[in-house]
Amino acid sequence: MLEMRPDCERCGTDLPADEAGAFICSFECTFCADCAEKLDDRCPNCGGELMDRPARVDDNLLRHPASTQRRYRR
């Protein structure tokens, strides 16, 4: 199950689990759309391809909440 990280690792933008706009690699490194575009859809951590993260909505989000651990480091 995806961790659904709450923020962009590059700029700190909030990325709610129930909304579109997050991009992830196979290791779940997470970036906003603007940063993914600036990174040419390549993860700077592992070199993997950044893909659209699916949203988690309704009962699924209630039963399996998103992570609250932020990854952005200033």
Automatic annotation (TrEMBL):
Name listed for the protein in its UniProt record = DUF1272 domain-containing protein
State the organism of origin.
Sphingomonas psychrolutea
